Structure formats: structure tokens, C-alpha cells
């Protein structure tokens, strides 16, 4: 039986965040340029998107190879990036790629909502190992995460439909990431009230 692989602490964040940082840097470098490829004119954003798709797939594949597993969110994110990024490149239309965060948050917010209607915390299924909580804590956290994801979906729609591409790239790279970080930082009281001790396997 294969044991879970232990990686240095920086590897997973580097593989998950590295492509996003690379996308942002490449966009800043190429945003004002246009490229003629196959007789068609493409803006820098579309070219950067075309490079981002294989990069995220390669990093996701490396992560799976190193850890032996991927979360459902990582799989769905990679699929949506491929589909909607691919549509943006194929149709030379940046709107499809900008819709991708909206769909990700709607899908996961909707799934959590379905679980709540069934009286279940589906968030617990994917985060139980990382965040040990009692059942009441999981239900509270799931309701909050569900609402938060739906708010982020609406916010992404508002930004990409009303702001420039550059403003959306800044929002996508830093705004959404900061919002997720701030959200979980504000859940400290819930973690404190509903946290449970992890059981140690075997003695020291």
C-alpha cells in the first residue's frame, strides 16, 4: 500500500500559485502588444491565456504526480480553465476566460447549498483533514463559505463587465486571493469554539 508522499512546505503553494503569478507577470509584459498568428490578430491577453492553459495543466499534473491525489476543486478548476480559456483563444474573445471564476464559485457555492438543503456539510468531505471541527461547526462554516462563494461570483461578474481588462487581472490575481485569505482569517472564533483535537495514531 502506498503511503501519502510528504513534500517540502513550499512545493504545493508554488505549483498552485506559480501559474497565477506567471500569468500576471506575462500580462503586464504583453498587455499592450498584438500578435499576428495564422493570419489572425490576437491581443496580449489572449496570447497569455493560451500560454496559461498548458502551464496550469502541467503544474496540476506535477502536483498529482508528487502527491498522488488532487482535490475536487483543483480538478474542476483545471477543467474550466482549459474549456473557457480554450474558448477565449479559439474565438479570440476574452470574455469566456473572465467568466471562469464566476462559474467556479457558482459551482462550488451551488454544491455546498445542495448539501445544506440535504442537512449535510459537503465542505467537511474535502476539508476535514485540514480543519478538524465538530458537526455544528462544519454546518456553520459551510453556510458561510456557500454565501461567500456566491458573493465572489457576483463580484467577479461586476468587475469584468464594468472594468478594464487590466483592472480585472489585478482583481483576479490579488483581489480574489486576498478576499479568500481575509474570509478564513475572520473565522478564527468559529474554529476556536468548534475545533476538536486530532487523534494521534500511536504513541511517541
UniProtKB/TrEMBL annotation:
Record localization: Cell inner membrane
Bilayer topology annotation: Multi-pass membrane protein
Taxonomic superkingdom: Bacteria
Signal peptide: none
This protein's record includes keyword Glycoprotein: no
Keywords: Cell inner membrane, Cell membrane, Membrane, Transmembrane, Transmembrane helix
Record has Cell inner membrane as a keyword: yes
GO cellular component: plasma membrane
One of the Pfam families matching this protein, by short name: IspA
Transmembrane segments: 12-30, 42-67, 73-91, 103-121, 141-160, 167-185
Family the entry assigns: Belongs to the YciB family.
Biological role stated in the UniProt entry: Plays a role in cell envelope biogenesis, maintenance of cell envelope integrity and membrane homeostasis.
Protein name: Inner membrane-spanning protein YciB
Gene that produces this protein: yciB
